[in-house]
């Protein structure tokens, strides 16, 4: 084992020495200086913090003064969005009223069908009641005819009794006298004997005739009593039939009126419900048309804002280039005047063209130009993809469709509100299978590219400015 250095053994073996009074004095002095300078440092920190706040406030005021004024396109876009929100709320309320009117119409139609069935049933009941009433009327007519026949027979019987009574009236005194004093009435007269005998024989015959007529009278009286009883029965039956007929006619009229009133009321309610539903549908159609107009105005304002933003971006870049040239000229002039060595400035950063495979999950294809890349028409404000013919296009975020229709020369355009002030703009599609106001999930199908292929423009807008879509994809 190698031998330890001597200096190490000495350091280990050396006992700890006490600090000298000079060192202790220096330490105390440093502590005192620190205690004195601490408030000064705190004051300097407070002053620095105050200066930072003043500078931040000055920067905020300067930014506010240099903030560009609100353009007419921004005002039009804001007004269109406000109107869109108002129309959507109104359209939602009108949709609720339309649904309620449709439900009322369906209920009224169902009630009309029920009332129609009820009216049919009531009509069937009136058929039976009418048939019963007709039977009652026929029976009443028959009873009336029988009663009339009984009255006629009663009159004839009474007339026969009256005639028999008149025929017997002269003979009644003689018959009464003969019945009391038969021999005295025959023998006290001055008539010859043969007349008396003849009178006896006549009396005998008359007695038989009177007996026969008396029997006939008794029979007629019995018949008359039977006729009177039958006639009374028929009259009672006739009265009962008349009362039944009155009740049946009243019931028949009530049922017929009920069927008619029910059908009329239900038909009127069904017609009114249908008219109300048609009116609400017309209002909904008008609101939808106005909303479509507002969306078109909003899309136009957004396109104008995009154009203005692109023009402003070009102007800004041109101004930066001019400023860079002026700075370079000033530096060159300063170097030339001072006779010093020229120091070359680093050139401004150049955005490297980006290209690659894949459509970032939006479309099948590859990236042609990326956001911020220089192009012939200026700096690219979005990503442009060379898409495969007929390839499907998917939603880059979850949100609400604000615009879905052809727009100028961009083909089918979709504006998707992703929330938090960001909107995706996709242009160049061949067809769309979504509509305005529809809610979409991220990755859902929104349409397809043209059958002959084409380029898909994907922009992300935050207000009126374009931002890099890469962090969102």
Automatic annotation (TrEMBL):
Residues 52-88, 320-358 are annotated as: Disordered. CDD domains: M23_peptidase. Residues 69-80 have a biased composition (Polar residues). Keywords: Hydrolase, Metal-binding, Metalloprotease, Protease, Zinc. Residues 329-341 have a biased composition (Low complexity). Residues 381-469 form the M23ase beta-sheet core domain. SUPFAM superfamilies: Duplicated hybrid motif. The keyword Metal-binding applies. The keyword Zinc applies. Its cofactor is Zn(2+). This is Peptidoglycan DD-metalloendopeptidase family protein.
